[in-house]
Amino acid sequence: MLGALPTSRELVSVEADRDTLGALAEPSAREANALAPSFVREIRRAQASLPAAGDEAVAFCTLTDGLVGTDAIGERLPADRIRLYDGGHECFASPDREAIVADAVAALREGPSALE
Question: Are 2 and 37 in contact (CB under 8 A)?
Answer without folding.
Answer: yes
